[in-house]
Amino acid sequence: MTADHRDQTIVLQQGQWLYSFCLGCMQADCSTRVLVKDGVVANVEGHPGKVPPGMGKVCTKGVAAIMSLYNPYRVKTPLKRTNPEKGPDIDPGWVEISWEEAIDTVARRFKRIREEDPRKLGIWWGWGLPQSLLIATRLVDEGGSIIPTSIYPNAFGTPNELNSRCLCAIHYASNLVHGHHAEGISDLQYCKYLIAVGRTVGANTGTTHGTLRLIDAIERGLKLVVVDPRFSPEAAKAYRWIPIRPGTELAFTLALLHVIFYEIGRIDEWFVKNRTNGPYLIGADGLYVRDAASGKPLVWDAVDNRAKVFDDPSLKDYALFGDYPVDGATAHPALHLIKQRMKEYTPEWAENITTVPAATIREVAREFMEYASIGSTISIDDYEFPFRPAQFASSGRGAVSQRNGTLFDLAGKIINLLAGAMEVPGAVTGNRNPHPGPWVLQPDQDGTVTPFMEAVGLDFKFPPDHISMSEFYPHAHATPYIMVRAILEPEKYHLSYEFEAMLNCGANSIRSGCDRELFIKAYSKVPFIVTFAANFDEVTMMSDIVFPDHHFLEHKYARFYMVSHQNIDDSVRGLVCAMGRNAALEPLHNTRSVDEVLLEIADRVGFLRGRNGINEYINRAFRLTGDNRLELDRRYTIDEMIDRRVKQMFGTDSGFEKLLQEGGLYRFQTPGKEGYNYYYWPGNKTRHPIYFERLKMSGLKMRKNLAEHAVTIPGWKDQEEYFQFFDAIPHWITPPEMKAPPEYDMYACNWKTSLMRHGTGNTQENAWLAEIRDTDPYELYIWINAVTAAQKGFADGDEVCVESPFGKAYGRLKVTQLIHPEVVGIAGCYGSGTYMMSPEAKKGSHFNSLLSGEEETSIDPISGSITISPRVKLYKVDGKGKKR
Amino acid sequence: MTRYAMVIDLARCVGCDTCSIACKAEHATPRGMLWNRVLKYETGSYPHSRLHFLPMICMHCAEPECEKACPTRAITKRVDGIVVVDNNRCMGCRYCVLACPYASPRNLDKLGSYYEDYLTPFEKMGFARHKAGTAEKCDFCLERVERGMEPACVVSCVAKARFFGNLDDPGSEVSRLIKEKAGFVLNPEMNTEPSVYYLPSVRGDR
Question: Model confidence over A244-270: pLDDT tens digits?
Fold first, then answer.
């Protein structure tokens, strides 16, 4: 007996396979194919040609996209609101309108705003379902200088490009120390020992390629050390799991530095002398001591016993420690000061703060330095590199999104630099944005790596241009929590114009940010909100005009691969890739391509054509040259623009059509040795900052600018609380959480999962993902350690409220051995939604409700990150959320 | 001879559930019906605790208890070792559900849809492949295997933790992995001779 009866009904291999790519998470870089049978999407698989980086894989979210396509709660037609009262759960009185009315209404309003003051419009973008190349194209993977890619805001003329990025401000330290974007990334081709602190290096969220590279590396023998308050999927694969009190990762890191300096005593001296600013002489003011004539930083020649400029060809050896007389004053090599600063941070001191046993800290420091194999080399393509197969992977959201987060990330960079483990095989390396080449690690006039992106810093201006007050946070990734405060209290924030309109695309700032109630209050005050929407989320419900977006499976489109995520190995080293997506079916509803709507609005308002119009910004952002360049005064379709970009990347015999036929076009531009930034600036040709003089300078500049305008940083009662972060050496600053009132006796922490990664891709409404998460013993629960639960009288399944000083989250308890005893853990970004969404959306606990962007208590003034591990208390509630 | 088998490497599995969702898409199983599940459980006391993942499908036993228990001969083992349910013969008595030591077959009480008043086009198409009131379980993606393809859970696994092949061929990848990496079956004491093997989550250990 066979199952022949099934053959009559199976759909397998019948129908048409069309190439596509996923939009289930922020990465959106998995090439797929979609099976269409009788006009119905019947399956989604990875691209069978194993197109990198996805390598023919697609995860939970990519397959489950079938259910978000057929989600009956989608936005299906253009809408306008009739109820002036705004709130996420207030009936907007939607009226269906034509596309013409919707576009005309928006274009007229934007035209008036642009004529009056373009700053009055804010454009909020994200990585969610409504996806736009005009709004969300970030840096493209070509080398050279920083290029403006915020196409739409720039062409409109507003500085107010907005984003929820305060929850993922991981870039400053890497932008400064590596001189590239987006983060130091783990080279897993050769790494043997990897300390991952408060982050994922691939597997925690089940990403396709990151997971594969990590698991392959572990199979090969990589020893993974996971420092995390909860036992993560990566901890299940780790050599060590080190649970830690959240928000104290800086103390752990400083103690590792203490052990390296004072107990191990061996560092990669060659590297520190030749490839860092460790030998630079520092004066009493904390700044470089400079040569009077040339202005160049001085170092101390330990052989000739006198100060010389750092690039003096007669230099025989650099002094790293000691007191040296320069121009009648005493100066110290930077490394001397760093070591001195680390003296107090003993493992015993750190144990008290982090709960990590001092013995563990010592063991990890020793193992790290041993595995770094200082002095060893490796030959790749006949080129000899320093070989440092050990990494301290710091730049991840869990540990960096803390008030001390940037200082932690910078301290982590110092650990790598002391071992010589930076931008060489086995170490923390470039993230391909820009891709490897002589433009990365290029030394500035001081001989140190030229800072990139957020490490460059925004120029001061008063009164500030930015609604989010970026002028006061020049290195911040984003400060949207200040935006809402400025909208509500414009005078306090020196706002010199009335914020009139917001355009949202691909983000739900109320769910995915902090200060939920403040955001709602502020958005009620914004006169005109326009949203490209996939579903009726909080921001859509507060909008005046709603443009329905195609589901991505309905949307013929392209994406240009930018960076490797989580980790890198030879399978993606030097990869340049474009992915194409065929429309799998005719749109189910009255939807349109976001970019076509944006082009139409731009044309009507008058910023599409001519100088500094959309066309010109496309030319710049897509790096179009020669015949590929758009004529400035013509109207192009988005498909034509994509076609030019594909041709620019892959030659004139390629193009959008070819991309759609093949699904992915790619080549390896900088494979092998060319994939390591060391190769372009070897030996002593460049120097990573190990002493962060630029950060100190940023603080000094800010003081000067504030004094000039006789203002203070708004929201900081004690200005020194702000300025203490702008120091050249990372140091411990006791987080406000550690001084919280005793009733808040626990910490909260959060992590992403394979079912709910970035909260993009409409995963919270997805019926299949919901089915899996509902059967999962951990996903939707509030985790509490079993011993703590017993002490407090909590039991598995108890309905509880988690309350921080800023908000509350509700849910059911999971009593587990897998979490730190002081920590309440909540996964993903569940438990939020509106009455017009699938009831699935509101299930679970909304972690972000616990978070705030209140300046003095919650902000890292360098990166602009908010603290994501607030102190909380926990109590039982009845079915209606009332305290029991 | 061919005896199809699967090897699931617990050292590589990251518990992401892509297999569960890929299975759902492949077989269009109605709401509430999962042929592939990833069990998660913990052992030990903090801080020496551990989280474990255990993907579960039909074990395609050489001596299937479900087949023996089935009064209508709806469940049969094919010559290639794949155990299948004929939904036209199944009368939904649940004997197989009770007999299976691995909780693999489950009764499809009704064609559960994801939305109360709305059947998505995908479900409408998929419902033709299921029959309410009959038992269902993993069939090793029979339709794919007969076309020389690997099961959906194997192809989709992001960690490459699953391997499919012929257990009767000592040179096959599955035979080699079982031998080299101490492959084991669940509940060997039940003597059902499963065709699904696991590789230990920590090498050299179970």
Answer: 999 999 999 999 999 999 999 999 999
CB count, 10 Å around CB of B111?
17
Give the C-alpha separation, B79 to A296, whole Å.
81
- Taking the C-alpha atoms of residue A749 and residue A760, their distance in angstroms, rounded to an integer, is 20
Sign for the pseudo-dihedral over CA of B87, B92, B94, B99: negative
A vs B, Cβ pairs < 8 A, gives 183
In order of A62, A132, A293, A380, A639, the CA distances from A128 in angstroms are: 13, 10, 54, 40, 21
**Three-state SS letters, A718-735:** CHHHHHCCCCCCCCCCCC
Q: Specify the pairing of strand A782-785 against strand A808-816.
A: parallel
Q: Which of A815, A836, A833 is nearest to A824 (CA)?
A: A815
Token readout for A642 is 């994509």
User: For the whole model, what pTM was predicted?
Assistant: 0.96
Helical residues (DSSP H) of B28-131, grouped into ranges: 65-69, 95-99, 121-127
Is the CB of residue B88 less than 8 Å away from at least one CB of chain A? yes
ipTM above 0.95, yes or no: yes
In the block, residue with structure tokens 């120390």: A177
Q: Which residues of B touch A70 (CB under 8 A)?
A: 120-122
Stretches in chain A below the pLDDT threshold 50 = 1-11
**Nearest-angstrom CA–CA distance, A550 and A454:** 33
The residues pairing with A403 across neighbouring beta strands, listed in sequence order, are: none
DSSP one-letter string for A323-389: -EEETTEEEEEHHHHHHHHTTT--HHHHHHHH---HHHHHHHHHHHHHHTTTT-EEEETTEEEE---
Q: B24-43: per-residue pLDDT in tens?
A: 999 999 999 999 999 999 99
Residue closest to A191 by CA, chosen among A415, A428, A432: A428
CB of B15 less than 8 A from some CB of A: yes
A718 burial class (0-12, 13-18, 19+ CB within 10 angstroms)?
A: exposed
Neighboring chain A residues of B111 at a CB cutoff of 8 Å: none
Bridge partner list, A558 = A580
Give the integer Cα–Cα distance in Å for A271 and A875. 53
**C-beta atoms of B158 and A243 within 8 A:** no
Q: What's the half-sphere exposure (Cβ side, CA atoms, 13 Å) at A622?
A: 31
Which residues of chain A neighbour B76 with C-beta distances below 8 Å? Answer: 1
Q: Name the token pair of A872.
A: 């909380």
Cβ atoms of B196 and B100 closer than 8 Å:
no
Q: How many CB atoms lie within 10 A of CB A689?
A: 27
Of B12, B52, B129, the CB nearest to A215: B12
What's the pLDDT at A2? 34
User: Is residue A387 within 8 Å of residue A190, measured between CB atoms?
Assistant: yes
Contact A215 B160 (CB under 8 A): yes
B11 inside 8 A of chain A by CB: yes
- Which chain B residue has the Cα nearest residue A769? B21
**Percent share of chain B, pLDDT over 90:** 97
Paired with A876 in beta bridges are A800
Interface of B with A in 102-161 (CB under 8 A): 114-115, 118, 120-122, 124-125, 128-129, 139, 142-144, 147, 152, 155-161
- Mutation target for B interface from A27, A31, A43: give the one with most B CBs within 10 A: A43
Distance in Å from the first CA to the final CA of chain B: 30
SS3 at position A483: helix
Give the integer Cα–Cα distance in Å for A117 and A499. Answer: 10
What confidence score (pLDDT) does residue A395 get? 87
pLDDT digits (tens, 9 = 90+) for B166-205: 999 999 999 999 999 999 999 999 999 999 999 999 865 4
